[in-house]
Every structure is written in C-alpha cells, then in structure tokens.
Amino acid sequence: MGKNYFYSCFIALFLLAGCTTDSPDKKVNAHRNDLVLGASARDFLSDELFTAIDLEIVYVTGFEPTAEALNSLRTFFERNTHKPNGISIQTRAISSPDVGSYSIEEIKAIEKKYRTAFSVDNRLAVFIFFADEKSQDSKEGTNILGKAYMNTSMVIFDSVIKSMNGSRSEIQTVTLHHEFGHLFGLVDNGTPAQSEHEDENPEHKAHCNVEGCLMAAKIDVSSSPLSFLENGVKILELDEHCKLDLKANGGK
Fold first, then answer.
1. Where are the domains of the chain?
2. At what angle do helices 67-80 and 168-183 cross, to 10 degrees?
3. Phi and psi of 99, rounded to 5°?
4. By Cβ atoms counted within 10 A, which residue in 17, 84, 110, 186 is the most buried?
5. Where are the beta strands (DSSP E) in the chain?
6. pLDDT band at 27 (very low <50, low <70, confident <90, very high)
C-alpha cells in the first residue's frame, strides 16, 4: 500500500492582483473578504485590529468536520495567534451543489451564496467550505485536500479525505492547519520570511523547504518526524523557520 500524500498549489491565485498588507487604507481593507491570499496575515496573527475570530464552516451533508479536528483548530489558533476575545466556530449543513469536481470559481460562487459571517469591528471572520467532491486540479497519484483561495476563505475536499487510509480527524486536522498557514501568510506570502526557507520549486510557491514542516508542499499524512499527539489527534508542527516568521509578523 503506497503512502498517502497531499499537495497544495496556489500559483494561479497570485494573478488576483489587488490590495496588499501595505495598503494605506489598511483599516478599511482589513474588513474585506475579497483580497489576495495572505493579505490578512497580520490581522490573523496580532490583536492590533482584531481580537477575536469567527469561523463559519459550511459543509455538504455527510462531509462535516470532526469534533476532534475543530478542537485542534481552536488550539492551533491559541498557540499561534493573539486573540484575547477568543475563537468562535459555527457549522451548518447544505445540500450538495451537484457540480461534480470543483473549480475555484465554483467554490467562490458557493461562498457568495452561503457566506453570512463577515469581519465587523474587532472580529475577523473566516469562511470554510467542506466539499463533497474533489478539486478540478486533482491529478492521478495526487491528493489535493484543501485550498486557501482568498484572504479569509478556504475549501476542504473532505470527499478525498474520506477515501484515504488513516484517521479522518487527523487528516482533516493537518489540512486545516496547513491551509490556515497560508492565510497566515506563510511562506513569504504576506508574512515576510525571516530566513531563506521557501521551496525553490516554482510550482510550490509559498511552501516551506523543510521536510516534515506543516507548510511543506508534499506531506506524508501517515508519518512525520515532527508530528506529535495533542488531545489524541496527531498534529504536524510548523518548523522553527515558520514559527519565527509568524512571531515577527505579530503572532505568538
């Protein structure tokens, strides 16, 4: 039996040129949800503008996030971000959109239809869609489990996760943490790198070159020298380079 890997690639997303984290209209842009990936990195990490995070999770019936994955996600935020007013998580089910494999444009249309949580005052809102089909970018031998596609948006391809060997909770956990790493601006995509550790492969832009790091482009979800148990769920950790980057951009 071969190993299970997942890959994530976001090169096309950088064509969505627009506002950056250096915009002079920072306070206005901070509440927008249509910016490029990584544009809200410091907003996630620090408490300068936002002291709380609201996670809105919409899932297709039968493809819900596990309680263990959500508990671990809350801990992940507590470990890496300054949010003194806490993390709220709301979930709700929808019927399948019946679109077959998903393109990013179809996922954006689903977000536009179902998203109800938006950043207001000191609360930063995030939209997460748990999908019932795979990504259109999937290739034979490659499992794409998730994509962060805008500054506060991501999709988890739970149908792929359910088809894999191993613990569904653990694979969901690794996928959610990895995609939030992209929302946090890693690697050098909204959160400036404090050292050279971005993967040199142009197809792996915004990923770490340290084997076993949570932000590596290729992750073996069945085994890693940097994995450890947390509340009974296997966690893949950020390497020291990524941790220093987050801290330098307002994180813990």
1. 5-248
2. 30
3. -105, 0
4. 186
5. 5-7, 52-60, 87-94, 123-131, 146-150, 153-157, 218-220, 227-230, 233-236
6. low
Instruction: Return the CATH architecture of domain 5-248.
Output: 3-Layer(aba) Sandwich (3.40)
Q: Give the burial string for 144-181 (b: 16+ CB within 10 Å, else e).
A: bbbbbbbbbbbbbbbbbbeebeebbbbbbbbbbbbbbb
Which tokens is 122 given?
A: 């000191």
Q: Which of 153, 172, 152 has the alpha carbon at shortest distance from 63? A: 172
Q: Is the pLDDT of residue 19 over 70?
A: no
Strand partners, 219: 6
Spell out the alpha helix ranges (H) of 66-191: 67-80, 104-114, 158-163, 168-183
Contact (CB, 8 A) for 176 and 73: yes
Tokens coding 3? 């190993």
What pLDDT does 45 receive? 98
- Which tokens go with 192? 């400036």
Q: Which pLDDT score, from 0 to 100, does residue 142 have?
A: 78
At 23 the pLDDT is 37
Q: Are 41 and 191 in contact (CB under 8 A)?
A: yes
What's residue 79's pLDDT? 95
CA distance 33 to 131: 20
Q: Is the pLDDT of residue 4 over 60?
A: no
Tens digits of residue pLDDT in 84-104: 999 999 999 999 999 999 999
- Rounded mean pLDDT of 103-121? 97
